[in-house]
Amino acid sequence: MKAIWLEDGNIEQVEIPAPVPPSGEALVAVRTAGVCATDLELIRGYYPYTGVLGHEFVGEVVSAPGRPDLTGIRVTGEINAACGTCPTCLRGDRTHCENRTVLGILSRDGAFAEYLALPVENLHPVPADVPDEAAVFTEPLAAALEILEQVTIAPGDRVLLVGAGRLGQLIARVLAATGCDLTVLAKYPAQQRLLGLAGIRATDPGREPVQTGFDVVVEATGSQTGFETARKCVRPRGTIVLKSTYKGRIEADFSAVVVDEITLVGSRCGPFDKALAMLASGAVDPRPLIDGRFPLARGVEAIRKAGGPGVMKILLKN
Is the pTM of this model over 0.85? Predict the structure, then answer.
């Protein structure tokens, strides 16, 4: 099968055998996959991964031993494959399984290919009225919704979102639905335009002074400078939610974090069922975020385009 392979920071189109799923796993024919900032950071060396990239996808089940009812069904899938037996799994934290593999990120080939394999328990049927180009956003939309699983945000709370890229756009839409007093720092005009279409206030940090005293600040810049901005903008005893993953480390004045009693919350994977329900209801339509569609055969070109300044979602299609 065709696939996009990452090794030592280089990506290339390859031909490799289709996966042979072990017991309990399904074979899925990938229909559409999305390029994520994490994919780009893996190429830069964020984590030492070698294999097929990609973890945002919608596909069709080819075979699912023990679940013949899934054959031919459109699905998306949770990316963490847990062992189910380690202490972390047994206490219910399967996304932090000590022995997990992660689709396209850790010891498991990903979705930039014609086929992938995932545990049957990771698969979620896609509602019939959710098209592929919306369903492919399920994983990042779930990651955005995870913020509300971790932090209580009430109508009227002053909330700042730092960053309005691929994930930030989805986070903005999720936060806006809470009725909070939301401000988004958006660097590029295209980001500001997309937020405006959704009725969300955008501030250009290069042109306007950034306010302070926010109850909650969500950092989603994908850069090392985002935390410094978040720290300056949150009020004492406020909360900073960290969504960025990237190569490198940050320097921070943690004495000030202690003195101001700031709560730091790391946040990544989230609830797929709620994300699919939001897509099905039309509460969020992510399709305006699509900046390009490429066949898998042009996957290397697509990924390079995705790394351009201000580029939103790039899709690979089979």
Answer: yes
